[in-house]
Design a protein that fits this description.
- By secondary structure, the protein is mainly alpha-helical.
- The protein has helices at residues 10-14, 26-33, 37-45, 54-70, 74-86, 91-107, 111-123, 129-141, 145-158, 163-175, 180-193, 198-211, 214-227, 232-242.
- The chain is built from 14 helices and no strands.
Length: 246
């Protein structure tokens, strides 16, 4: 499965639309919101915190954690995000930080720690498609395919048009052979919503291959490869279906 969990609306994790930042860190926040994460990090690290209140320190830790996460500097991100969580900060901000912590733990093969963060959110009633998609991705990594399907179905109960859940469930149903025809329906719907997403095109091509329709499989995998030629999973699927050397 190609980058399934990370394909989410960043505002669900970052919280960049929910808060008015302190005047002391506004320049860094503007850079962060402009996706200029390297320079945002430099700006945040240069802030003089000598006269900061405890709330301002937590706010700065929040943005430092997000910047480090965006730059794949995960260990540094963890230290700052954990500060926000343990400080019992704003309810939504804690949700966002726990989701980001879970994301990092999944990517760094600490699946049980990811599940702990997600279960904490679930226990207090903070259920969302993003949460269930992450739990599903965690289950998929552990080859717990039935559990993954259950979580994706819960995500779709909340948002029937959630493209990540549609695509990911379709991929699993096709790849495992659980229900290839159902997989095709899910994958087509995901591609209809985001026709230029290479991961979704790859899943649809793979589902066609699993259904025995090699011609359609070649068409969709070729489109995926044209958009993302260096993605190993797409290359692998294309080679299996066509036998061509890349």
């Amino acid at each position: 499965m190609t980058a399934q969990w990370s394909d989410t609306d960043e505002s669900e994790v970052s919280g960049e639309k929910e808060y008015r930042p302190s005047d002391k860190i506004q320049k860094g926040v503007k850079l962060y919101n402009a996706r200029n994460w390297d320079n945002a990090l430099i700006e945040f690290l240069s802030v003089n915190t000598q006269n900061f209140t405890s709330e301002e320190k937590i706010e700065l830790a929040y943005y430092l954690g997000l910047c480090y996460a965006k730059l794949d500097r995960f260990e540094e991100a963890l230290s700052y995000l954990e500060q926000v969580v343990t400080a019992n900060a704003d309810f939504l901000r804690v949700f966002q930080c726990r989701m980001t912590l879970a994301y990092i733990y999944v990517l760094t093969d600490r699946v049980k720690m990811a599940e702990y963060e997600l279960k904490r959110l679930q226990d207090i009633g903070l259920e969302s498609p993003l949460l269930f998609n992450t739990l599903a991705y965690s289950a998929w990594i552990q080859k717990q395919y039935a559990n993954a399907i259950d979580f994706y179905e819960k995500a779709l109960e909340i948002d029937s048009e959630n493209a990540t859940a549609l695509n990911s469930m379709g991929y699993i149903l096709a790849d495992t052979g659980m229900d290839v025809m159902r997989a095709l329906r899910f994958c087509r719907k995901a591609v209809d919503s985001r026709p230029e997403n290479p991961a979704y095109l790859d899943s649809l091509g793979w589902a066609y291959y699993k259904s025995g329709d090699t011609l359609e499989a070649r068409t969709w995998l070729r489109r995926a490869l044209d958009i993302s030629p260096n993605e190993p999973e797409i290359q692998k699927h294309f080679k299996i279906v066509t036998g061509d050397k890349l």
